[in-house]
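FORM 7B: Structural annotation worksheet

SECTION A. Query
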Amino acid sequence: MNSTTQKRVCIIGGGASGITAIKQLLDEGHVPVCFERSADMGGVFNYKKDQDSAVESGLVNGVYKNTVLTISNYLMCFSDLPPTGRRRHWHHTEYRQYLSDYIDKFNLAPHINLQHRVTKVVPVNQGTNGYQVTVQGPNGAEQVQQFDALAVCSGTHQIANIPNIKGLESFAGKISHGSQYNTSDMAKGKRVLCVGLGESSADITREISETADECHLALRSYPFLIPRNLNHSSSDAWTSRLHHDYHTPKHESAISYLMLLVYYLLLRPFLFKRDRAKMDSFDQDTSQNMLDLNTPGSTENVKLIKAWNYLSKGRRFATKNVTFVPNIINGKIQVNASGIDRFTAQQVIFNDGTRKDIDLVMFATGYKENFDFIEGFQLKDNNVRNLFMNSIPTDLHNCAFIGWARPVTGGIPACSEMAARYFALLVSGKRKIPADAQQRIAADQKFYHEFYSKNSPTLNTVVGWKRHLENLAELIGCQVHTARYILQPGLFVRLFAGSLVPSQYRLEGPHAMPDSAARSIREIPITLPSSHILYGIKMNLSNKFKFLRQRALARKTNLDYSEFFSEWFRFDIPLTLKDIHRFSFRADDFNKKFNKL
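SECTION B. Predicted structure
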């Protein structure tokens, strides 16, 4: 690339999103300069043993001592460095090592400036004349640097969100947030209230319940739970083209599905052979039939999961961590799902009238966005859904927010990598923001409101794994044309029945790695049961042909999502009305709404 097209790009944040942004910009011949405010790279995976000093210095921690990733290694990786070996859920230290290996492999360290904090960004003429970036160095001195483009990669874990609850200001005990959590030692001898139940809270609440005198869990709605183990493998192994293509039908041809059906009927024993590993993704013996890390697949555990999935009504972000469930069953965690009415100096009062004495409140209530450091920039409603592809502002030139797309199943890093690839091509002038970007933004807003945000209105970063990545792939030019691989049956079958791994987006397009990508895809075993594969083929074929689609839609109108989401696994353990009542955990008349299942 010559000097007239080579751009100097400011990258804010040295976590996974910033690291892959450096790599993708280097591939396009640009000059990335990354500023990371902490003393090491890794972002939320830069584990800090001393949480108190980290908080005092303005940093928050995304991981705690015992963090194990909710997404398996093959979906948490980048497409240009897939892992080797079997599918596993990494401990946070293993993923941090993966990021270090990525930096070393592509020699990214010279582009990262540690202990440098960006305090102000001034877009010059809406970015058309670049960006003036004020950077504070390790000694506190500030300097202004000029850049051609800007990538904000600091992510969502920046400002802890403490909800505004009546009486909280008068509470005499300690108030903490999940970003300050490291171990449960802080809960010893205390009566603790945990508020909220996302994937981190599932761990934090369970750990606190092991050491606290009392542990109460406050919910205002029921989560949709996915065990991290299904059929002796990681549940995200089921994140396949077959299961996710129904919402992105334009990307696959009817010919591909017809050939998939032919291969299934004629060569199923050879091409669709399932892997039955001896150890699951947590290194537990598969004969134990564990639902999650140290979580047995007992009848009571399964019934609670099914009851909450029924009550959740589906269509919300999935909590992919059920390790806390046994401690609800054994009474270590006391749940109240009516929501919090108010606090007093020593008590929490729930909406159903229940009162509990508490000493410590642990909020696991997410984070807030703040883009005030960009002078003159106002994101509509402070909502990243108003960015094109949850990344590109249409009113700033050569600018991207990378790391604000969180897939329901799949990893944020892969979404960030695809956004970074598109951004790098925009900076090169090889791609343009489409003329209908605003219409596409509106279409995404409508889709995600219907499927996720209707029941969880604050989850504006949530995206569908295949929908989001396929749309980005189309913009980049690396979409997977499955019909091209029909004569490579081993690869073709895995593109549908195997996992939707990031490597597929290196088969074609800019900076493709076709040989290594195909090899990586072939090496990952198929784990979907045969019945699910055949069902997926039928559903997607019915979506391709008008007369079959009409029959499918007729069936869909009679579909009860509550029932569907409660019965999608462990068919041998049925859910009963009694289970709904006993696992609702409310003292009001809520259960009167349910007189039949």
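SECTION C. Observations
DSSP finds 18 helices and 26 strands in the chain. Residues 54-58, 552-559 have pLDDT under 50 and may be disordered.

SECTION D. Sign-off
Analyst initials: ____
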